[in-house]
Amino acid sequence: MIGLFTGTFDPVHLGHMALVRAALREGGLDEMWLLVNADPAHKIDVMAYEHRLAMAELAVRDEPGVRVVDYRESHTYAGFRAFMAAWPREQFVFVVGMDVMAGIDRWDDIKSVVLDTAFLVAQRPSVGDEVAALRQRLGRVGDLLDAREFEFDAYNMASSRRIRELLRAGEQSEWLDARVAEYISHHSLYL
Protein backbone atom coordinates (compact mmCIF):
# COMPACT_ATOMS: atom_id res chain seq x y z
CA MET A 1 0.00 0.00 0.00
CA ILE A 2 1.24 3.48 -0.90
CA GLY A 3 0.51 6.53 1.23
CA LEU A 4 -0.18 9.78 -0.61
CA PHE A 5 0.71 12.88 1.35
CA THR A 6 -0.22 16.07 -0.43
CA GLY A 7 0.42 19.64 0.52
CA THR A 8 1.73 23.02 -0.41
CA PHE A 9 5.04 22.32 1.41
CA ASP A 10 5.91 26.02 1.49
CA PRO A 11 8.49 25.06 2.76
CA VAL A 12 8.62 21.38 3.67
CA HIS A 13 9.75 21.01 7.29
CA LEU A 14 10.72 18.45 9.91
CA GLY A 15 7.11 18.12 11.06
CA HIS A 16 6.10 16.97 7.59
CA MET A 17 8.88 14.40 7.57
CA ALA A 18 8.04 13.17 11.08
CA LEU A 19 4.47 12.62 9.88
CA VAL A 20 5.74 10.72 6.83
CA ARG A 21 7.84 8.39 9.01
CA ALA A 22 5.00 7.87 11.51
CA ALA A 23 2.51 7.08 8.74
CA LEU A 24 4.90 4.57 7.15
CA ARG A 25 5.41 2.85 10.48
CA GLU A 26 1.91 3.07 12.00
CA GLY A 27 0.04 2.50 8.74
CA GLY A 28 2.17 -0.45 7.65
CA LEU A 29 2.75 1.27 4.32
CA ASP A 30 5.15 0.00 1.68
CA GLU A 31 5.94 3.49 0.41
CA MET A 32 5.00 7.11 0.88
CA TRP A 33 4.67 9.50 -2.06
CA LEU A 34 4.68 13.24 -1.53
CA LEU A 35 2.66 15.29 -3.99
CA VAL A 36 3.45 19.00 -3.96
CA ASN A 37 0.36 21.00 -4.87
CA ALA A 38 1.42 23.02 -7.92
CA ASP A 39 -1.42 25.54 -7.70
CA PRO A 40 -3.13 25.55 -4.30
CA ALA A 41 -6.42 27.36 -4.83
CA HIS A 42 -6.83 28.25 -1.15
CA LYS A 43 -3.42 29.93 -0.69
CA ILE A 44 -1.91 33.21 -1.90
CA ASP A 45 1.73 34.25 -2.30
CA VAL A 46 2.97 30.69 -2.61
CA MET A 47 6.60 30.06 -3.55
CA ALA A 48 7.11 28.83 -7.12
CA TYR A 49 6.28 25.16 -7.59
CA GLU A 50 9.78 24.33 -8.85
CA HIS A 51 11.34 25.56 -5.60
CA ARG A 52 8.81 23.74 -3.41
CA LEU A 53 9.32 20.55 -5.44
CA ALA A 54 13.12 20.83 -5.17
CA MET A 55 12.92 21.37 -1.39
CA ALA A 56 10.64 18.34 -0.99
CA GLU A 57 13.09 16.22 -3.00
CA LEU A 58 15.93 17.34 -0.72
CA ALA A 59 13.90 16.55 2.39
CA VAL A 60 13.17 12.95 1.31
CA ARG A 61 16.63 12.20 -0.08
CA ASP A 62 17.65 9.89 2.78
CA GLU A 63 14.19 8.63 3.70
CA PRO A 64 13.75 4.94 2.79
CA GLY A 65 10.48 4.22 1.03
CA VAL A 66 9.69 7.90 0.44
CA ARG A 67 9.72 9.79 -2.83
CA VAL A 68 8.34 12.94 -4.37
CA VAL A 69 6.13 12.54 -7.43
CA ASP A 70 6.05 15.48 -9.83
CA TYR A 71 2.30 15.77 -10.29
CA ARG A 72 1.19 19.18 -11.52
CA GLU A 73 -2.47 18.43 -12.13
CA SER A 74 -5.25 19.77 -9.96
CA HIS A 75 -5.30 18.49 -6.40
CA THR A 76 -9.05 18.01 -6.50
CA TYR A 77 -10.93 14.77 -6.20
CA ALA A 78 -11.17 14.53 -10.01
CA GLY A 79 -7.43 15.17 -10.28
CA PHE A 80 -6.65 12.44 -7.78
CA ARG A 81 -8.94 9.99 -9.53
CA ALA A 82 -6.94 10.62 -12.71
CA PHE A 83 -3.71 10.19 -10.76
CA MET A 84 -4.82 6.86 -9.29
CA ALA A 85 -6.04 5.68 -12.71
CA ALA A 86 -2.50 6.22 -14.01
CA TRP A 87 -1.28 3.68 -11.41
CA PRO A 88 -3.98 0.98 -11.72
CA ARG A 89 -1.96 -1.75 -9.98
CA GLU A 90 -1.26 0.30 -6.88
CA GLN A 91 -3.40 0.61 -3.81
CA PHE A 92 -3.38 4.08 -2.27
CA VAL A 93 -4.32 5.60 1.05
CA PHE A 94 -4.42 9.34 1.64
CA VAL A 95 -2.41 10.45 4.65
CA VAL A 96 -4.01 13.49 6.25
CA GLY A 97 -4.06 15.34 9.51
CA MET A 98 -7.17 15.45 11.66
CA ASP A 99 -7.74 19.07 10.54
CA VAL A 100 -8.13 17.95 6.91
CA MET A 101 -10.20 14.91 7.83
CA ALA A 102 -12.59 16.98 9.91
CA GLY A 103 -13.56 19.00 6.84
CA ILE A 104 -13.94 16.44 4.07
CA ASP A 105 -17.70 16.63 4.29
CA ARG A 106 -17.32 20.04 2.57
CA TRP A 107 -15.57 18.46 -0.45
CA ASP A 108 -17.34 18.11 -3.78
CA ASP A 109 -18.98 14.74 -4.44
CA ILE A 110 -18.40 13.56 -0.89
CA LYS A 111 -20.21 10.27 -1.51
CA SER A 112 -17.70 9.29 -4.22
CA VAL A 113 -14.81 10.43 -2.02
CA VAL A 114 -16.01 8.15 0.78
CA LEU A 115 -16.66 5.20 -1.53
CA ASP A 116 -13.39 5.45 -3.48
CA THR A 117 -10.85 6.67 -0.95
CA ALA A 118 -9.08 5.28 2.08
CA PHE A 119 -7.57 7.60 4.68
CA LEU A 120 -4.80 7.24 7.24
CA VAL A 121 -5.40 10.02 9.75
CA ALA A 122 -2.81 11.56 12.06
CA GLN A 123 -4.55 12.08 15.38
CA ARG A 124 -3.08 14.33 18.04
CA PRO A 125 -3.81 12.98 21.53
CA SER A 126 -5.16 16.35 22.67
CA VAL A 127 -7.77 16.54 19.87
CA GLY A 128 -11.17 14.90 20.04
CA ASP A 129 -12.24 12.11 17.72
CA GLU A 130 -13.18 14.10 14.64
CA VAL A 131 -13.52 10.93 12.55
CA ALA A 132 -16.44 9.75 14.69
CA ALA A 133 -18.05 13.20 14.44
CA LEU A 134 -17.53 13.19 10.68
CA ARG A 135 -19.10 9.75 10.32
CA GLN A 136 -22.11 10.99 12.25
CA ARG A 137 -22.45 14.13 10.07
CA LEU A 138 -22.26 12.00 6.91
CA GLY A 139 -25.07 9.70 8.06
CA ARG A 140 -25.28 6.36 6.23
CA VAL A 141 -22.38 7.30 3.94
CA GLY A 142 -20.28 7.82 7.07
CA ASP A 143 -20.61 4.13 7.92
CA LEU A 144 -18.63 3.40 4.72
CA LEU A 145 -15.77 5.81 5.51
CA ASP A 146 -12.43 3.97 5.50
CA ALA A 147 -10.40 6.07 7.93
CA ARG A 148 -7.76 4.53 10.17
CA GLU A 149 -6.22 6.74 12.81
CA PHE A 150 -2.75 6.76 14.28
CA GLU A 151 -1.41 8.86 17.11
CA PHE A 152 0.95 11.62 16.08
CA ASP A 153 2.14 14.51 18.21
CA ALA A 154 5.72 15.09 17.05
CA TYR A 155 6.63 18.58 15.89
CA ASN A 156 3.18 19.85 16.69
CA MET A 157 4.54 23.42 16.78
CA ALA A 158 6.13 23.18 13.31
CA SER A 159 4.42 25.42 10.82
CA SER A 160 5.38 26.47 7.30
CA ARG A 161 3.76 29.86 7.95
CA ARG A 162 5.85 30.40 11.10
CA ILE A 163 9.02 29.30 9.27
CA ARG A 164 8.35 31.85 6.52
CA GLU A 165 7.86 34.57 9.16
CA LEU A 166 11.18 33.69 10.80
CA LEU A 167 13.02 33.67 7.49
CA ARG A 168 11.55 37.05 6.48
CA ALA A 169 12.80 38.41 9.82
CA GLY A 170 16.30 37.15 9.01
CA GLU A 171 16.15 34.30 11.52
CA GLN A 172 16.74 30.59 11.02
CA SER A 173 14.24 27.88 11.92
CA GLU A 174 15.04 24.73 13.85
CA TRP A 175 12.20 23.04 11.96
CA LEU A 176 14.07 22.94 8.65
CA ASP A 177 16.25 20.12 7.37
CA ALA A 178 19.79 21.46 6.84
CA ARG A 179 19.64 20.76 3.08
CA VAL A 180 16.33 22.61 2.76
CA ALA A 181 17.69 25.53 4.80
CA GLU A 182 20.76 25.67 2.53
CA TYR A 183 18.55 25.61 -0.59
CA ILE A 184 16.45 28.47 0.80
CA SER A 185 19.57 30.48 1.59
CA HIS A 186 21.23 29.75 -1.76
CA HIS A 187 18.14 30.87 -3.71
CA SER A 188 17.31 33.78 -1.36
CA LEU A 189 13.79 32.50 -0.79
CA TYR A 190 11.23 33.93 1.66
CA LEU A 191 12.93 37.31 2.02
Please outline what is shown here:
Helices cover 38% and strands 18% of the residues. It has 191 residues and is of the alpha/beta class. Strands 3-2-1-4-5-6 form a six-stranded parallel sheet, sandwiched between helices.
Tell me what you see in this structure:
The protein has 8 helices and 6 strands, in the order βαβαβαβααβαβαα. The chain is α/β, with parallel strands linked by helices. The protein has one domain: 3-Layer(aba) Sandwich (Rossmann fold), CATH 3.40.50. Strands 3-2-1-4-5-6 form a 6-stranded parallel β-sheet, with helices on both faces. Helix 2 links the parallel strand 2 and strand 3. Helix 2 packs antiparallel against helix 8. The longest helix is centred in the N-terminal third of the chain and has 14 residues, at 14-27. The radius of gyration is 17 Å and the shape is globular. The protein starts with a strand and ends in a 5-residue tail after the last helix.
What order do the helices and strands come in, and which of them pair?
Layout: E1 2-7, H1 14-27, E2 31-36, H2 49-60, E3 66-69, H3 77-85, E4 92-97, H4 98-101, H5 110-116, E5 118-123, H6 130-138, E6 146-151, H7 160-168, H8 178-186
Parallel strand pairs: 1-2, 1-4, 2-3, 4-5, 5-6
Helix pairs in contact: 2-8
List keywords for this structure.
globular, alpha/beta, 191 residues, 8 helices, 6 strands, Rossmann fold, six-stranded parallel sheet
